[in-house]
Every structure is written in C-alpha cells, then in structure tokens.
DNA sequence: CATTTGCCTACTATGTCAATAGGTTTTTAG
DNA sequence: CTAAAAACCTATTGACATAGTAGGCAAATG
C-alpha cells in the first residue's frame, strides 16, 4: 500500500509543475493548495531535494522548483525515492534475494512477476502524463 | 507490500495441495515443513477457514484440507482474504472512493490503473499454477 | 535589518506486524 | 472409556512504521 509519503510527494511534484515559472514556489503555498500540513511536507520534501527531484532555495523569495522537465520524471522514481522501495515482498527488496528457501520457493516467481509488472507500470509513466 | 499473513497463507495452501489425500493434515506438520511458528499459523488459518478456503477438523486424526480443487482458487482470493485488501492506496480500499478531492484528483487514475493491473494479475493465476 | 523562507533535531500518539502464551473444546484411536 | 491429539479461543507483547507536531536555527533578500 502506497503511504502518504509517496502520494504527497507526487502531489507536490504536480503542484510544482502546474505552477512552474521563473520563481521559486514556497512550501506554504503548496501546503495550502493541497490541504496538507506544511510541517509534514517539510520532511518529505527534504528527501526529494536530497534525491535530486527538486531544488530548494532559502530566504525571502525562496521555495522549491522542479530540476527537470516533467516528461523527464518517471513516476516510479518519485515513488521509490519517497517510499523506499516498491518491492512487493521483503525477500525481493534491496536488490538481492536473501531468503534461504528461494532456491525451491513455489511463490517466488509469483512475486517476481508482480514486481516486474509494478516496475514497468510506474516507470512507463512520467510526471507529464499526470498534468 | 505483501506481509507474512498473505505469504504464509499461500504456503499453507500449497502445502495442503501437495500433501492432499483422504486424510486431514495437522497444522503441526505444515508448520514443521514450512519452518513457521504453529501458533502464528493458527491465527492465519482461522481466517482461511472462516473465508471458506479450507476445512478444519478437530480431534485426533483432525487437521485441515482444501475445500476445492487447486485450479478453483484464484491467488487473488487467498491474498485478499488474508491481507484484507490489495488496494494500492487507502482511498480506493473498501470498494468506494471516499476522498473529497477525488473529482479532480490528478493521481487517482494512476492508482486506479495500478489496482486494476494488480487485480488482473492475481486473479488470472490459480493455486494450481504454483504447484 | 527584519521578514520570509528553507532546514534541522527531537518528540509523540496511534496502529500494525509478527509473534508468544496459556488455556478450552472436540474427536478419535487404542 | 479414557487419554492423546488436534483444532479453537482470548489475551498480551515487543518492535517498528506511520503520520504527524513542536520549536528553533540558518540563509537570503526586499
């Protein structure tokens, strides 16, 4: 289940894209428009800056803006960054298969197939597609 | 993320299918074969009985067995029953869209599309496919 | 230089997950 | 007919994640 972190991050990205201009957009404005606590958004937005999704500027006239064009953001990248991973089961998270039973696990192919489906879905769409 | 509840339930189903005969299979045996706490399995198995997936029999010589043929169990039914729902976001769980912003939500189609993909994937496979 | 804004650490309430513990009831095998 | 084996039931627990809240510091500009 996608939590508020990923969903809010996506809404921030959309808000930034829809209000893009030559100025930075204060988080206060985004929080008000989206009806989300500004304080909570700060936590999420921090990861988005660290992950290179957006750029922040302090001081008066500061705020945030996208660091790429909307069509250059795969949705999957935004979600993975803020949710941690979009793996369907714990034994497939982190890149490597860790479970000792994986060699003859009846269910592993099921989860692996679902993971691929999920990955393909979210990486085939970009932020542009949501505008 | 699919939790142990859904994953263990699936493994119980597979174990029951692979050891099917004219006798009931004690949970103790399943727990030992699968390397899962029997006490924890009791909780999960309880829901599976209530949901009509399997049949339990008390007393000596008792245990559990499948109540249908393996090809008549869609994987999605097993997971939904034990996980509660396989909806990707809270606003799509429970059947109805509850969010007040849903009318002009930029992200809802994304989640709805993913939900459909997920549903189709897990309901297109049956227990038989995992054996 | 005061205001606006991002940035940072810490704290908290609530709930879920993954069990564990200890019993009661049911049924059959011997 | 009784003892063992099994399901069935309620309650509790420790760890962790979620979804925030609170308060202040740093930076930049108008």
In a few lines, what is going on in this structure?
With 131 residues, chain A is mainly α. Chain A has five helices and two strands; from the N terminus they run H-H-H-E-E-H-H.
Describe this protein's structure:
The structure is a homodimer of 131-residue chains. In chain A, 47% of the residues lie in helices and 6% in strands. Chain A has 5 helices and 2 strands. In chain A, a hairpin with a 5-residue loop joins β1 (54-57) and β2. The mean pLDDT of chain A is 94. At the A-B interface, α1 and α5 of A face α1 and α5 of B. The first copy, chain A, binds a DNA duplex (30 and 30 nucleotides) through residues 3-5, 24, 26-28, 37, 39-40, 42-43, 45-46, 49, 56-64.
CATH C-level class of the domain at 4-66 in chain A is Mainly Alpha
Gross CATH architecture of the domain at 4-66 in chain A: Orthogonal Bundle
Q: Give the CA-based shape of chain A.
A: elongated
Poorly predicted segments of chain A = none
> Radius of gyration of chain A, rounded?
17 Å
Q: Number of DSSP strands of chain A?
A: 2
Overall pLDDT confidence of chain A = 94
Spatial order of the strands in the main sheet of chain A? 1-2
The largest sheet of chain A is: 2 strands, antiparallel
Q: What's the number of helices of chain A?
A: 5
Q: Using the coordinates shown, work out and report the CATH topology of the domain at 4-66 in chain A.
A: Arc Repressor Mutant, subunit A
Helix share bin of chain A: 40-55%
Oligomer: homodimer
Element-by-element helix/strand order of chain A: HHHEEHH
Biggest interface, chains and residues, is:
A-B, 26 and 26 residues
């Amino acid at each position: 289940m996608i939590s508020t972190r990923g969903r809010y991050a996506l809404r921030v990205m959309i808000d930034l894209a829809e209000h893009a201009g030559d100025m930075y957009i204060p988080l206060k404005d985004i929080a008000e428009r989206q009806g989300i606590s500004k304080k909570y958004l700060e936590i999420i937005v921090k990861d988005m800056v660290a992950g290179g999704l957006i750029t922040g500027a302090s001081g008066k006239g500061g705020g945030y803006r996208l660091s790429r064009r909307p069509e250059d953001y795969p949705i999957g990248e935004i979600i993975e960054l803020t949710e941690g991973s979009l793996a369907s089961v714990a034994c497939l998270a982190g890149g490597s298969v860790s479970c000792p039973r994986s060699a003859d696990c009846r269910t592993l192919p099921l989860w692996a197939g679902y993971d691929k489906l999920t990955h393909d879905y979210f990486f085939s769409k970009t932020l542009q597609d949501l505008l």
